[in-house]
């Protein structure tokens, strides 16, 4: 039996699709990249924004055509955050869908498919997070970079966000289990891992002492031979500790990068969003990270046009961006998400054209900052791990502080270290040419490079 998985949304969804792929292959089923050849089609959905949810409905419609066009035995399952949110609506609206499942029972995918093969149409949202362990037969989408989910759920209840309702409350995996998974990847020759969570730096707060323990995972994983870079995402500002900052600073393998979503620069709007920090506290935290960690890069998320946002509120956001000087930001125009507090109790009172105007204004400010920050890398040699080939024909790589570099290369260097001389910069990637690669005999060791560049 062949199966196909369509994945929308964040890296956690990608990781969960990798788990479902591994479980199905372990039972003898065969993955296919062509849905027309599939006997089972799984759609792993996202509900963070309305656009993502619309993509889900489009995918259900288009992928369900094979069932209507004569291949009636095709099984279609829909999971992920939108599945949690829409539940009965998906099953009732689309006769082609056989089952709908949740975010906490992806480990049950083999049994869910078997039930559907017997002709049953059903919903299943059971909680099987305890089965989410290092012993799952996962099939990573990369051969050098692995995702490791360390904490599920979210306790923050920001008024605009649906995630706590679709992912549930925070639940951390056991430290030993996570380290076992990281060790398994190290033994297979993986060079990079990313620790994942909706609030990744809340990891371990539910163990009893209410103290985050992400820094411990980074320290222990850094001792593993083949692992060269350790990333984590996504952070919540108030859960970042001094220990985490110092660990990122002092552990050479820790990526010098923090993604720090803030959403607004106005205290009034932050309060309406139910964010757990003030403008002042957030800026102080960003400045602390930038001053403590050499060559660190910071990024953030913003929502423009939140209910009640005045021009003054928006300009406070602009001022915050100018003060923090991020290397990149993600901006979204506010759209109500059904089931959230903001959707229930706040009027979406900012006109679409005002939202768009603010979006464009803030993006242009950030582009100027991006270009200015990137200029300091011109005419320097940067070390990256080469990733995939892009549509432009160039290959992409990332530095240890998450600068994206584009260059000409060959497939045999995928997953390898390459040193790239930066010839030009943009508001986005840096562009350069390879001057040396890891496969050459006189290539400088990574630890020596880090000592030279970062002072370790």
TrEMBL record:
HAMAP family: tRNA_metthiotr_MiaB. Its cofactor is [4Fe-4S] cluster. This is tRNA-2-methylthio-N(6)-dimethylallyladenosine synthase. Residues 1-118 form the MTTase N-terminal domain. Its EC number is 2.8.4.3. Catalyzes the methylthiolation of N6-(dimethylallyl)adenosine (i(6)A), leading to the formation of 2-methylthio-N6-(dimethylallyl)adenosine (ms(2)i(6)A) at position 37 in tRNAs that read codons beginning with uridine. Its main location: cytoplasm. The gene is miaB. Keywords: 4Fe-4S, Cytoplasm, Iron, Iron-sulfur, Metal-binding, S-adenosyl-L-methionine, Transferase, tRNA processing. [4Fe-4S] cluster 1 binds at residues 10, 46, 81. [4Fe-4S] cluster 2 binds at residues 154, 158, 161. Coiled coil: none annotated. NCBIfam families: miaB-methiolase (TIGR01574), MiaB/RimO family radical SAM methylthiotransferase (TIGR00089). SMART domains: Elp3. PROSITE patterns: MTTASE_N, MTTASE_RADICAL, RADICAL_SAM, TRAM. Belongs to the methylthiotransferase family. MiaB subfamily. It catalyses: N(6)-dimethylallyladenosine(37) in tRNA + (sulfur carrier)-SH + AH2 + 2 S-adenosyl-L-methionine = 2-methylsulfanyl-N(6)-dimethylallyladenosine(37) in tRNA + (sulfur carrier)-H + 5'-deoxyadenosine + L-methionine + A + S-adenosyl-L-homocysteine + 2 H(+). InterPro entries: Elp3/MiaA/NifB-like_rSAM (IPR006638), Methylthiotransferase (IPR005839), Methylthiotransferase_CS (IPR020612), Methylthiotransferase_N (IPR013848), Methylthiotransferase_N_sf (IPR038135), MiaB_methiolase (IPR006463), rSAM (IPR007197), rSAM_horseshoe (IPR023404). GO terms for molecular function: 4 iron, 4 sulfur cluster binding; metal ion binding; tRNA-2-methylthio-N(6)-dimethylallyladenosine(37) synthase activity.
């Amino acid at each position: 039996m062949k199966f196909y998985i369509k994945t929308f949304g964040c890296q956690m969804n990608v990781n969960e699709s990798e788990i479902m792929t591994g479980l199905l292959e372990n039972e003898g089923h065969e993955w296919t990249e062509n849905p027309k050849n599939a006997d089972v089609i799984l759609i792993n959905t996202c509900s963070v924004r309305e656009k993502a949810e619309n993509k889900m409905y489009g995918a259900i419609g288009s992928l369900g055509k094979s069932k209507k066009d004569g291949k009636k035995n095709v099984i279609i399952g829909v999971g992920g955050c939108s599945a949690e949110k829409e539940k009965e609506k998906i099953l009732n609206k689309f006769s082609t869908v056989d089952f709908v499942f949740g975010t906490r029972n992806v480990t049950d995918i083999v049994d869910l498919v078997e039930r559907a093969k017997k002709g049953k149409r059903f919903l299943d949202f059971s909680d099987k997070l305890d089965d989410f362990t290092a012993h799952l037969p996962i099939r990573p989408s990369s051969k050098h970079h692995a995702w490791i989910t360390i904490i599920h759920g979210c306790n923050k209840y920001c008024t605009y966000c649906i995630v706590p309702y679709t992912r549930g409350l925070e639940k951390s995996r056991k430290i030993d289990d996570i380290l076992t998974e990281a060790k398994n990847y190290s033994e297979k020759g993986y060079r990079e891992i990313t620790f994942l969570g909706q609030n990744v730096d809340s990891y371990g707060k539910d163990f009893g002492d209410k103290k985050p323990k992400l820094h411990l995972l980074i320290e222990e994983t850094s001792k593993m031979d083949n692992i060269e870079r350790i990333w984590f995402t996504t952070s919540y500002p108030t859960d970042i500790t001094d220990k985490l900052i110092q660990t990122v600073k002092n552990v050479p393998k820790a990526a010098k990068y923090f993604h720090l979503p803030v959403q607004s620069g106005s205290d009034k709007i932050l309060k309406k969003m139910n964010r757990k920090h003030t403008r002042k506290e957030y800026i102080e935290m960003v400045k602390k990270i930038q001053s403590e960690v050499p060559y660190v890069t910071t990024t953030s998320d913003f929502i423009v046009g939140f209910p009640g946002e005045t021009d003054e509120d928006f300009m406070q956001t602009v001022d915050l961006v100018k003060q923090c000087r991020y290397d990149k930001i993600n901006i979204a125009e506010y759209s109500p998400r059904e089931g959230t507090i903001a959707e229930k109790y706040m009027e979406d009172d900012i006109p679409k054209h005002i939202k768009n105007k603010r979006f464009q204004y803030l993006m242009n400010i950030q582009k100027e900052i991006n270009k200015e920050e990137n200029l300091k890398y011109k005419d320097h040699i940067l070390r990256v791990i080469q990733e995939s080939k892009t549509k432009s024909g160039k290959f992409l790589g990332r530095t240890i502080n998450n600068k994206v570099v584009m260059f000409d290369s060959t497939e045999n260097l995928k997953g390898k270290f390459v040193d790239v001389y930066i010839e030009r910069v943009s508001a986005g990637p840096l562009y350069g040419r390879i001057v040396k690669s890891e496969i050459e005999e006189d290539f400088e060791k990574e630890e020596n490079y880090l000592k030279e560049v970062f002072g370790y």
